[in-house]
């Protein structure tokens, strides 16, 4: 089983996770820029983080044979903090980088006027830089959040096939299915979407434009739930071909629209970090 996790925050994960992911078949990931829990108070905190997403983390992933790409944005939660607003001014520089395959995570957290403005601005950046967009949908008041997100996406003029609405569930899937946007599902250990529930959605709605991710981060999460979903699909009667479509070819097609996916088998290690101690220790 080859797996492309289209939404995972590896910055928050350990090397044990990279090892287990690689053993489970995860060959490629996309790491969206997001909220780190601790509020950031100045632009430099963001630029160091973005530099890590396009520099250090791809190098670290490469040690385990995993191809790493990123999406870059001012996340919805921090869109509300005026100290973070200068991030919008430096985004164009990052959106030109090779490892950046979309603008994201953008969208709503609490649906404030500040979030409205930052969401629209970043969709315009996606259009200007000819990149897809990864839209986070809120965990509270989800249906209204998805409806408003779809309205902002439509207003922006971005082609729907270049947008994924993520963290969908049984209720919100219905709102997105016929819009032409891609549908993202984050599989969690105890709450929200689970592998069996995901299988039921794939039975009901098919495999087209469906993306399955672990969204693993610093909270309770599990980077192997993509694999668990593939196994649950096979048990339910889906073919290897269906699993490959959902877990590999769909994310390749979606992020491939950036023109920047790099999935060849060469060693991903880059010389920049060659002297770092990560290379010691025998692995
Ligand atoms: Zn996320």
Describe this structure in words.
With 283 residues, the chain is α/β, with parallel strands linked by helices. The protein has one domain: TIM Barrel, CATH 3.20.20.140. 39% of the residues lie in helices and 14% in strands. The chain has an 8-stranded parallel β-sheet, with helices on both faces. The longest helix is centred in the C-terminal third of the chain and has 17 residues. The radius of gyration is 18 Å and the shape is globular. 43% of the residues are buried. The site of zinc ion has 6 residues, from loops. Zinc ion binds next to loops.
Task: Write a brief structural summary.
With 283 residues, this protein is α/β, with parallel strands linked by helices. 39% of the residues lie in helices and 14% in strands.
Shape: globular
How confident is the prediction overall: mean pLDDT? 93
CATH topology: TIM Barrel
CATH structural class = Alpha Beta
What is the percentage of strand-forming residues? 5-15%
The residue ranges in which pLDDT falls below 50 over 5 or more consecutive positions are 266-271, 279-283
What small ligands are held by the chains?
zinc ion
Number of strands: 8
Main β sheet profile: 8 strands, parallel
Euclidean distance between termini CA atoms: 24 Å
Q: What string, H for helix and E for strand, traces the elements in order?
A: EHEHHEHEHEHEHEHEHH
Organism: Micromonospora craterilacus
Keywords: Hydrolase, Metal-binding
Family: Belongs to the metallo-dependent hydrolases superfamily.
Pfam family, one: TatD_DNase
